């Protein structure tokens, strides 16, 4: 069979930490061949970020259908970020075949077959003049899958040739793992990652996150409280399984009674314990953990993981991947898979009944139409 054509795709996502829009670029056949390019983050305006944080704190609004204005603002922020990315990196619009637009998750309730990402594919395609694929999670959710995580097939493509079994851990707002052993891939969300600690630090110190994990490192975790937090029934649920950003906020309320350093240490310990607990749900002990996402820059998370796992735990840069832009690159890759009709999730990654295709394609308006 002839090799499939390589397609250049931009991927864009604003993750659950809502710090900004990550944009990157890949060239791929949507299968084993992937070359990744540069990435950039374009912060949301303070006003839009505050509006989004208020929205997700109010499930009734987030689940409702009256999000027209904020969706337009999020879509325009993504289109602007992608235009800026192309200008910053010297990328010619005509060289980009498709944009994979994940958008902004505001609510995720797979048990009710509901997930909501803000990001209007038609609007972004019209602004950019480039075809857009969005709504990656909906077909999976509709078929009874979790709709997340979707990054595992990208992790597997990148991990070809590395020693396995291997665990890739993303420490974003929410944590998720991909276990890879040859063709076998198992994935699920592990628990809270940075979201709980971010919100705690923002409330206590007015800072966006615990830089380097230094506040957490300066305190003593409340072991009894961590043991109680680890009793959440989610951790015993078999994989695949996925989470909403705020699923643990009410559960971890008791941490508010602790001092700043002790509270941060307790949340860091809880995050690391919940991620390390993932080994209970995979068939073999991974030889190595590769950590991606902003949480890999939190030295306290990384040290705690090393202590708990007893195998090498390294940032993904150890194997040449870019831990700031893996997810953005993933949605470029998945856009190409979507165009080629290839599955973007498997029963072992989302619990869908069969390998699922997904994503919706929005064609850019034809520029020559009506031209003289
Ligand atoms: N220098 C740093 N020190 C400590 N933590 C950091 C640092 N830089 C980033 N982080 C953490 O990483 C988080 C952002 O991570 P990332 O961008 O991977 O999340 P996301 O992509 O929004 O989330 P998700 O993967 O859940 O969608 C920040 O909110 C912060 O908690
Ligand atoms: C519903 C949703 O947006 N989930 C995110 C979130 O952030 C991390 C984790 O929870 C993961 O399941 C997913 O994102 C990545 C990109 C994924 O789908 O693989």
UniProtKB/TrEMBL annotation:
Region (Disordered): which ranges? 353-372
Q: What class of enzyme is it?
A: transferase
Q: Which Gene3D superfamilies does the annotation name?
A: 3.30.420.40
Positions contributing to ATP binding: 15-22
Hey, what's the signal peptide range on this chain?
none
Query: Which NCBIfam families does the annotation name?
Result: PRK09585.1-5
What are the GO BP annotations of this UniProt entry? 1,6-anhydro-N-acetyl-beta-muramic acid catabolic process; amino sugar metabolic process; peptidoglycan turnover
- Please give the name of this protein: Anhydro-N-acetylmuramic acid kinase
Which gene is the coding source of this polypeptide chain? anmK
Q: Does the keyword Zinc apply?
A: no
| Reactions this protein catalyses | 1,6-anhydro-N-acetyl-beta-muramate + ATP + H2O = N-acetyl-D-muramate 6-phosphate + ADP + H(+)
A Pfam family of this chain: AnmK
Can you provide one Gene Ontology molecular function annotated for this UniProt record? ATP binding
Q: Please describe what this protein does.
A: Catalyzes the specific phosphorylation of 1,6-anhydro-N-acetylmuramic acid (anhMurNAc) with the simultaneous cleavage of the 1,6-anhydro ring, generating MurNAc-6-P. Is required for the utilization of anhMurNAc either imported from the medium or derived from its own cell wall murein, and thus plays a role in cell wall recycling.
| UniProt-listed PANTHER family | ANHYDRO-N-ACETYLMURAMIC ACID KINASE
Instruction: Extract the SUPFAM superfamilies matched here.
Output: Actin-like ATPase domain
The alphabetized UniProt keywords are: ATP-binding, Carbohydrate metabolism, Kinase, Nucleotide-binding, Transferase
The pathway where this protein functions is: Cell wall biogenesis; peptidoglycan recycling; Amino-sugar metabolism; 1,6-anhydro-N-acetylmuramate degradation
EC number(s) of the enzyme? 2.7.1.170
Q: Source species, please?
A: Alsobacter soli
Instruction: State the family it belongs to.
Output: Belongs to the anhydro-N-acetylmuramic acid kinase family.
